[in-house]
Amino acid sequence: MRDIRHFIDGAAFEGASGRFGDVFNPNTGEVQARVQLATVSEMDRAVQSAQAAFEGWSSTNPQRRARVMFEFKRLVEANMNELAEMLSSEHGKVIADSKGDIQRGLEVIEFACGIPHALKGEYTLGAGPGIDVYSSRQALGVVAGITPFNFPAMIPMWMFGVAIAVGNTFILKPSERDPSVPVRLGELMMEAGAPKGVLNVVHGDKTAVDAILAHPDIHAVSFVGSSDIAHYVYQTGAQHGKRVQAMGGAKNHGIVMPDADLDQVIKDLSGAAYGSAGERCMALPVVVPVGKKTADELRERLIAEIPTLRVGVSTDDQAHYGPVVSAQHRDRVAGWISKGVEEGAELVVDGRDFSLQGHEKGYFIGPSLFDHVTT
User: Fold this and answer.
1) Fold of the CATH domain 2-248
2) Could you say which of 75, 281, 295, 334 is catalytic?
């Protein structure tokens, strides 16, 4: 069994907690690896490494830091296929979606490549009688990111790209469901020329999260995940005097107007609602048509469109989406569908009994559609 280790001080770090999480292949339902779960002392070891790296990294001029980001971008692009296959094997999204996941993260890395300009301060002459005012931007120190399973490349790069470019050092606590890509990103950052300790990856569960939120040498925390945990992270981090941004519970809603181009609407909805098996922060699971005529036509078109959606394994380049990330999540979605029926909604298309031939133990669920949904 392959063990996924922490990445601390520029190298793989063997954890000593004796606790592991299973990493599944959602296409087959099989355990493919174990991920080590950190102790408080192991998190502290990562913070010490980041703290030791901070003085030298923050005093490195922004142009040199930007060159590291340029090289990191090049390395990620050069390893795109490897990263996408690794991501799909643990998350379940199709390869095209995995490449999109990585590319969206790279867009922020591209922004970080221009950090010398973004870091410029301001100077105001004569703000008051005999008073001039200037401002400068300085790095905070050690900062941390706690990221979700659904975008294991994009969201970490969103967080650590700018944080590192401006001179901070970073602790990344990725989801334990798909942890391999974040570790690989840490390796590539070192290969790009970042000093050891600038980017550390520590795996874990609530123990690791609480260690981040309570550690006195971590000055800021960024979080993406569920609303309940976002509230917990914000409250706990603020109690410990940290800057916190906590983003939770995002989903989109759509309104279809009577004069909408329904051909385009159906095309957009099928991707927005069902793409990546709905496991996107900005998925679009709720649509409100304006007027009965619009609603009836939209319903009929969706009924015709849904059977054309191909559900397949991650490596199927014809598949529109793959499995969900875990058996628990598949069962939870099926439970939500059952609850909708119990509460009086009309289940027009039922995907609960979907099974992919040859992958019956995979975490697949078919596209489903409700109509006449009550509050």
Assistant:
1) Aldehyde Dehydrogenase; Chain A, domain 1 (3.40.605)
2) 281
